Task: inverse folding
């Protein structure tokens, strides 16, 4: 089962696949395990970044990860820096991290790990990692994993929750087995209502609800969901859900349960906190409400609305006048397919088509580029607007909601031509 790092000798840990980890990373991993026992102290401080510009975000380096923007360290919430917005696939070490509960797994014994598929089924399964690989067809999908609260910090009025900029997202090639195949083998009984997913993370206090998510049983098989054991051709990093995680392409990351070891079919509506109380949005198609008039009806958040983001120039960057400059960005939706990106370099007065990058599949993000030769010196506003194959595009004003979810307003980037 799950070992705590403070109870097993380091030699044994190294034998479990952490040999490539540098000493500092190893110490942080050990600290993560110890942190569970030190309830009152801040578990472990961030490694000091090499150099910090005034006002720059704090960086931290966790095991198997590169320097990422630190939101909180217990539980770890780490944001991907802007330079990775220019890559088709996010390197595993740069992939953002978000956990809800401080009791996160820090070491897994792959020999004794089991994935259980049970509940309202005729043929409950208890699978080793080897069986999962051998007994089921292997499939891959490139898909964006985006936190519901990505870009939350830009909402006005401000909403509580992790104050993410735009980097609570990443794009990777996920490899594993179809959720559909697992459910078919387990044979859901008639009257199945929900399928629930739980991982190995645990709440520090019994009063905190376990992190369990659910999908409707009648849809779980239709979604292109995967139980993944690989990310970009390598085992998942521990912080991104080693050894297995659920991938629900096109859906917000809250469903992408990490360190997944329990799939359960229910015969009644699943009443868990993280479905019934949290991760809900106003029940209108815009998922919007106003601070003065909160929506009465809410529904669980599900698919990601279309959006595009700038990768370059970076905020505050000065763009030289009279020289060709490549504005770069990325765009994605819930899988209907990015069809067009339009860019404005004059604050929305005129728009022109950007050039789309490689198509890595309908659930992937798509890079784009727009060559701009700025004329007059001075400040100007860049905007980018994506449209998908279903004709859906982005709103001109932010769709505020109390949790700061699903932000997809047309971005405005103030730059100076100099
Ligand atoms: N077991 C478990 N899985 C989880 C979570 C969690 O707290 N526990 N958080 C979810 C949320 S809200 C997000 S945004 C993503 C983050 O995935 P990442 O850490 O791989 O980037 O994991 C999802 N899966
Ligand atoms: Mo999230």
Result:
């Amino acid at each position: 089962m799950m070992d705590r790092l403070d109870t097993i000798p380091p030699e044994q840990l190294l034998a479990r696949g952490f040999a490539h980890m540098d000493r500092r990373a190893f110490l942080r991993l050990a600290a993560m395990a110890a942190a569970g026992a030190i309830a009152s102290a801040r578990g472990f401080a961030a490694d000091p970044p090499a150099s910090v510009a005034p006002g720059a975000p704090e960086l931290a380096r966790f095991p198997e990860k590169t320097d990422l923007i630190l939101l909180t360290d217990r539980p770890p919430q780490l944001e991907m820096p802007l330079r990775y917005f220019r890559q088709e696939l996010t390197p595993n070490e740069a992939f953002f991290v978000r956990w809800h509960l401080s009791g996160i797994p820090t070491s897994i014994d792959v020999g004794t790990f089991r994935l259980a598929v049970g509940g309202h089924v005729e043929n409950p399964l208890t699978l080793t990692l080897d069986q999962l690989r051998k007994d089921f067809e292997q499939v891959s999908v490139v898909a964006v994993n985006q936190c519901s609260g990505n870009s939350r910090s830009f909402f006005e009025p401000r909403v509580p929750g992790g104050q993410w900029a735009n980097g609570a997202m990443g794009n990777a090639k996920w490899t594993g087995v179809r959720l559909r195949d697992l459910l078919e083998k387990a044979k859901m009984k008639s009257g199945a209502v929900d399928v629930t997913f739980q991982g190995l993370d645990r709440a520090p206090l019994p009063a905190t609800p376990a992190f369990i998510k659910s999908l409707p049983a009648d849809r779980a098989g239709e979604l292109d969901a995967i139980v993944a054991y690989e990310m970009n051709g390598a085992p998942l990093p521990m912080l991104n859900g080693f050894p297995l995680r659920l991938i629900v392409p096109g859906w917000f990351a809250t469903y992408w349960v990490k360190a997944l070891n329990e799939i359960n079919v229910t015969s009644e509506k699943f009443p868990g906190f993280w479905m019934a109380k949290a991760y809900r949005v106003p029940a209108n198609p815009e998922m919007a409400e106003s601070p003065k008039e909160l929506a009465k009806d809410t529904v669980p958040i599900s698919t990601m609305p279309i959006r595009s983001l700038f990768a370059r120039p970076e905020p505050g960057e000065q763009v030289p006048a009279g020289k060709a400059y490549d504005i770069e960005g990325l765009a994605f939706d819930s899988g209907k397919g990015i069809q067009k990106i339009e860019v404005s370099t004059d604050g929305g007065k005129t728009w022109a088509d950007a050039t789309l990058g490689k198509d890595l599949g309908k659930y992937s993000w798509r890079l784009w580029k727009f060559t701009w030769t700025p004329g007059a010196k001075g400040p100007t506003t860049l905007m980018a607007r994506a449209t998908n194959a279903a004709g859906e595009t982005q709103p001109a004003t932010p769709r505020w909601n109390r949790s700061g979810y699903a932000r997809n307003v047309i971005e405005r980037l103030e730059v100076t031509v100099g």
